[in-house]
Amino acid sequence: MLKTSLPSSRPLPPGRRYWRTQVLAWGAYAVFNLVLFKAFAGKAAGTWAWVLSLVIAAALLAASHLLRQLMQRRDWLGRPPLALLGRLLLANAALAVGCEVVIGLLAWLLLPRQSAAQGPQGWLPYLGYILNMNVMLWLWSAAYVGWHYLQRSQRVEVEKWRLTAAVREAELNTLRAQLNPHFLFNGLNNIRGLVSEDPARAREALAHLAELLRYVMQHSATPLLPLGQEMEIVADYLALEALQLEDRLQYSLDVDPAARAVPLPPLTVQLLVENAIKHGVAVRPAGGFVAVTAQLDAEGWLCLTVRSPGRFSPDAATGRSGLGLRGLRERLAQAVGPAAEFELSNDPAAPDAVRATLRLPDLRAQAPGPATVLSTSLSPVAS
């Protein structure tokens, strides 16, 4: 059961990076004000210039931190842009007035009377100071909101890739869960027919089935395995089928040593061989010959072919394609992507033969995809 948590009304505690940025930014503004005081007041800008610059910077630091508290406590960043702008308009104006009042009080308390007497007279200069404070708070708000929107977009992108990977993994697990019972049922059904007829052959069949079970249990969750390892289990499967079909099944395995290291989804070749036996050999009283060949083409791609007796009809195959080939196509699409090429057709070199052809790129030479990127996630930073 999914649980959704409402946003907390308590603001997140600020982290070190937040305070470091705040101190550096407003410290730089204090230096900027000090330079202005020195430029316009000249030698008259003594201790009061230092004190006033620090007071202004401290007031803006406190005001910006209070603004941050309001944004997080009231969840302003989760509101539409116009609602956020309206709240910032009122908050920045009120904080600018408050900053000027605080600065005036501190200047009256800390600065000498003669320095205070030389300050601005009337309300117009103070309105200018308030406008300046407002502008600085708007600049801070723009930087803070922009940084949060950037962090949010990055988190959304990472979550999107995580969700995509989770969906793909769930689909693969579903296909494996469907495939394994289907495969095991066929193997056990074959052995059941041998138990009463030939117990010795039944024991031999159980040994081959044990190897198949070990392979499924160890590698069913592995996305890719070398072709050489896959062919070992195909040999066990063919031996198991030959014990039941006897002379009706003849087969050959011809694999180029250079192609044995090419990775492909587990049980891919076994599915093709099982399909060839089920629809090409087992349905014929005389049986037939299954030939498996694998080699690399001029582009370095794996070209795997399974030939079996029979005739392929696309219309008839639509109704009886079954779980095997449908699952194979889906697993290839999930593990390899659109680059995988699979074709089931009549063999042009033989009048009564069906050819299943699989062409895959050598994934060892490809760069890591989005799933690899997901292994590194954004670390949460208090701000």
Automatic annotation (TrEMBL):
The keyword Transmembrane belongs to this UniProt entry's keyword annotation: yes
* Entry-linked InterPro entries: Bact_2-comp_sensor_kinase, HATPase_C_sf, Sig_transdc_His_kin_internal
From the record, give the transmembrane residue ranges.
Answer: 21-41, 47-67, 88-111, 123-145
Statement: the UniProt record of this protein carries the keyword Membrane:
yes
* Keywords tagged on the record: Kinase, Membrane, Transferase, Transmembrane, Transmembrane helix
Q: Name one Pfam family in it.
A: His_kinase
Q: Which residues form the Signal transduction histidine kinase internal region domain?
A: 170-249
GO molecular-function term, one example from the UniProt record: kinase activity
The record's SUPFAM superfamilies line, in alphabetical order, gives: ATPase domain of HSP90 chaperone/DNA topoisomerase II/histidine kinase
Listed name of the protein: Histidine kinase
**Provenance organism:** Hymenobacter armeniacus
Organism phylogeny: Bacteria, Pseudomonadati, Bacteroidota, Cytophagia, Cytophagales
